[in-house]
Fold CPBP family intramembrane metalloprotease.
Amino acid sequence: MKNKKILLANCLLLLALLLFILVPFWAIKLFGLVRPISENVSLLLSGSASVIVFGGVALLYCIITKRKFKNVMVIKKISIKQVYLTIFVSLGTYIFAMGINAMTIKLFPFAIKDGTQISNLLSGSTMLLGLLVVVLVPAFFEEIFFRGIFLDAYDGVNKKIKYFIITSIFAAFHGNVMQIMYVMFLGFILLMVREYTGSIVGSMTLHAANNAISFILSKVLMNYMNNVIESSALKSAQEANIPFRAVLIQATMAFLIGGAIIYINLRKLKEYKDTDNRAKRVEREENNDTLKYVVRDGNYMATYGEIKDGKASNLTKYIPLAIYFVSMAVLVVNKY
């Protein structure tokens, strides 16, 4: 069963990639849109594609596996304490990202083009539409896809391998050099928060808070400083030829400050989870001391069955994943 779920998730990943390419194209043809498309329309197309593709594929996964949506995605309420700790993590993540972006621009100057395009898109869109498409839509639909489907499908896989695969899938899907390093880092933190809160609501909260901080600060700076601050900052890394040592010092400061904030609040989230789990475990043991032996036997039977599936199925389930990464590499290379 485990191999089948992984194969299904990886195949649906290819389907999502194909649809994400085709849906905006179909929308442009259907509504007769003429290029160049305005920033608001571009954001609207992107948001609609996310809702249709990520939401549709997530529902399809639940239908095929014959399980309830909330159970697959692990949608549970989290406490107020977990919410504000998660928001502090998002603040640290944003500061840490400043260091990653500085190093990315210095090492890959052609990534400046990506940053400029993103800046122009945000500056030319309305605040309400930006909050909807940049903050709320990704926080829900990207989470149910990347931290919902794939955490469920890869359940039982070695944690380090599982986290690496999911973060790599998440980063590659963004399809540009400017974001890929930062998104790899963000994807890992999202998985940690999802684990420590025990609910996808935790990673949704972090995703929304992180995007909101980035969007609102960028929007405010661009609106009140003649829309030149971010583009100037990006170009200066190349045009002013800032020494690598200076960039490294700036990045190191961001890493230290952001990393400290992330570490402290992730540790508090984990401590909260461990305390809560100990209380629940004691209660379960008092209520039914024999249940753990039944569960243990059931897990053994499932594991034994997986071993008998053979090496062929273990290899086959990763073929769609390999196709996905090759396809994304080709798309990125063609873009630059």
Q: What stands out?
A: Residues 244-287 form the longest helix (44 residues). The CA atoms of residues 227 and 306 lie 57 Å apart. The chain has one domain: 2-335. Confidence is low (pLDDT under 50) at residues 226-240, 290-309.
